[in-house]
Structures are given as C-alpha cells and as structure tokens.
C-alpha cells in the first residue's frame, strides 16, 4: 500500500507547533474531550436521531469496533459516501477512532468516480446509505466491487441486503487500538475539485486540519449555544470545516443534518431547532433570499450565513442582511487548505465586496504573474499559498504535484485574485480550466474525455459560460464525425457513463471546426478560451 503522507519542512513544522497551531490533538481526542466536557448536551440532530455528546461518542466507539471486527486494519482506507444523516458523524468518528482513513465521496458521485477513488486510495471498504433520492447505492456498490475486488467490505446505513448493516455493529471495545493515532499523520483523504482530469486525493493531517477548524470556529463566532445546520453535502470541505459541523463539535455546539439544502427542508429545521449558523453556495443563498420573502416559518434564529464555494456577487451579497436578517460571512476556501473569511464585525464594504482574509497570520499569500513574479500591490495575479494547513502534495500523483506546487512549496490555487489595501482578497477569476457550477468544480478535460468516447464525436472542447443562477454552466463544443446527432442524445449518452449528473454538459454546440487559424500548435487552454469568446458573442440558433 502506498503510504499516506503530508510533510512540511522541519523548521516550519517546528514554528507551527511553537505557535500553538498544531497541538498534537487527533479527531478522536476532539470528540472524547468534548464528550467529557459536554456529555449531556445535544450533539447531533438527524432525520430520526437526537444524540448527546456522550451518545455520539458511544456510537463512534461501537462503529470503530464494528469496522475493526470486519478485519480492517489501522491505516486502511474506507470510501465514505453518505448523505447528511446523523450516522455520517458516527461513521467518520468511528473510522477515526479505529485509525482507519475516510475517503470522502459526494452522494452525487457514480461508478466512474467511486472506482477512481477506490483504486487511487487502495480502499478496503465502502460505506453507503441504502437508497436516496431514487438511487440505490447498493447496486452501485455491487458494480464497484466487481471492478475493484480489493473493496472487500461494504457497510450500509439502512437496509443492507447482502452487505454488512451498520446497525449490526456491536461494541466489543477490546478491539479498539490502545495507543492513539499520531496527530502529525494523515487523518483522511479529501477529494479535489479537479481542473485536469479526474479528482486528486488530498491528504490532511489531524494537526493541520484541526487548527483550521478551531480557528474557523472562533472567526465564525461559534459557542456551545450555537446550532450549526449542515445544508451542503457533509463530505464537502466547506460544511465540514468552515467552520462546519467539525467547528461546531469543537466548541460543544449542536449540529443539525439537513437532508437537502432547499428552503422547503431547511426553513422548518431552522425554526424547530433554533439554527443560528449555516453555510451555502451562492445559488442557494439566492434561493433562500427569495423564499424568505414569503415563508411561514420563523427563521429569525439565524445569525450568520456563510457563503462560499464560488463567487458571491456584491449585488447579491448586499441583500443578505435585509432579506435574511443575519450577518453575511463570505468564505473563499479550498480543500487543499487556505481558507479566507470576512470577519463578522468587518465594515459592510469588506463583507460585501471581498472574499475575506486568511485564517492564519502564518498563511503566506503570493500574487504573481504567469512567470511567478509578484505583481505590484493591488494588481491582479495568480494566487499562490502555503501555510500551516495547506498541503504540500497530493496523494500518489507526481504529475499533478509537479504542476500544482512551486519548488518552495507554494500551492498554485489556479485562482486569479487581487488584494485590497486592508489585506482582503477579491476573487477575479481563474487561470485553470475548470467550470465552477454552483460550487461544484468540473474539469473540462474530464468531460471532454467522456465526449471523445462517443462514436459520433470527432473532437470536443468544454468551456464555462456565465449563468445568472448557477454562476457558471458548461457548454461543450463538438465537431461531429459525420451528421451531427442531437444535443439531447449526447446528454442522454453522457448520463449512461456512470458519472455525477453535474458533469453532464448544460449546453451542446455543434461546429464544423474550432476555427483556430493560428499557425502551429494551440494548447487546449487557448482553444477553450477562444471558443468561450466565440460563444459569448454567438447566435443562439445552433445551440441544443
Ligand atoms: C471550496 O473548496 P473546493 O476545493 O471545492 O474548491 C476550491 C475553489 C477555489 O480554488 C476557488 O476557485 C473556488 O473554489 N472558490 C471560490 C470561493 N470559494 C471557493 N471562488 C470565488 N469565491 C469564493 N468565495 O469551494 C471551499 C472550501 C472551504 C470553504 C469554502 C469553499
């Protein structure tokens, strides 16, 4: 098995420890300490669950024993693909307790993605829910096991059929490791948005991640009286740690798991549970503002709304206080590390017009031109960063690492930003070819690869186009092999490729050629940029 690692230079690691960023605490310590201090307080509310901290700890220990009883060994990787259930927390804290490594997949992922995660992480097990939104994850698990037999165990929250029922786990605590995990070691693998091809795996350590979580909780004003609503998919880095349900657990607050982020589901939960804080991507924030105008539910307990994952335009940001009667906190983060927040007491113009400033005084931010030369202060450039919770490498991916990190360890975020005189970042755009569709990052290259497998497709280039609601949507330019099929046929065919639905192009445009007249070789990036320009000025007639 390829070892998991995340290594910072010794001098920096020593500095991060000395500053108290890295405290030598593990995820298991976090829950154990919280349960010791707040045992009777409500920790988590799910569809049919209301667990105190003591109960969450007990369930996590039972889960840990159950996973180990299957024969899994500390260090084994386990793909977790669960919707927002209370069990999400007992499963992942169980895995942490057993020193197993969660690999976080989204409920929207399908066979192609799960097989990739399982292979790349060398997973030994897969945790799913039985069925959700009309989709049967057990059928998916059968296909995954057929393709990746190393995924020996499938554990199901709900009706297990031939698999192992999570409910059947018994608390044989003698199976639990007696020594603690090493807090400087990798605790879990997060999935990258992916700008080139398939998602990369992001190894995060206990030390680095818990630092970002603890300080996020302070920056977002969480206390034991807070109630955090997990509205976005719990596997995503934003609701996990910015400040997210882990931030809430850090301070002994209550976490409410919402099965869907829609106002229909979330407003009654806010009213019933007295939710004080949540996080949304921009399109959902727009939807919530619209719905708040004529809801019968009392959502006045909401104090803070975090918005991030994609650019929240100032015009929309300005409406939050008035229409939702709460404080907006913009968050610009990435699963690889760096997270920026506007502060709750910032002046209105910073909250509305910027994406915040870094968590840590030791987050190093460089804004450079395409030759990596720093631009003048206030100018627009590419954002590079390193710091106490930003990774130095992806797991097992030399090519991506060579591309994504500078020689002195800065992560190339791919984002184009400028810094205000106050030191706040404004996201201006992006240098890499991914599409940010309502916060879901889609790799142009990955979608093009799928399209090229279609017999009627000679060549394909996928670009983003602006969308009032989603922020961006995908448009695929296709040169057909002969007579052009209909766009809807291509979309239907894409859906059969067992990929997440959000990767199916929103729009398809057939063209005879890419009309690139420049002599010599043109990069895919230049090609996409040229096509995007053409689309922006194009007639609508030829689109499907
Ligand atoms: C969050 O994480 P990822 O890994 O899904 O995506 C990171 C990318 C950033 O590099 C940037 O391109 C974009 O998402 N992004 C934003 C943004 N927040 C993220 N672009 C403009 N404005 C923003 N506020 O998306 C994520 C992780 C932690 C907290 C929040 C978001």
UniProtKB/TrEMBL annotation:
Pfam families cross-referenced by the UniProt entry: AMP-binding, AMP-binding_C
AMP-dependent synthetase/ligase domain span: 33-395
Residue ranges of every copy of the AMP-binding enzyme C-terminal domain listed in the record: 446-521
PANTHER family: LONG-CHAIN-FATTY-ACID--COA LIGASE, NONRIBOSOMAL PEPTIDE SYNTHASE PES1 (EUROFUNG)-RELATED
Name under which the protein is recorded: AMP-binding protein
Organism: Brevundimonas nasdae
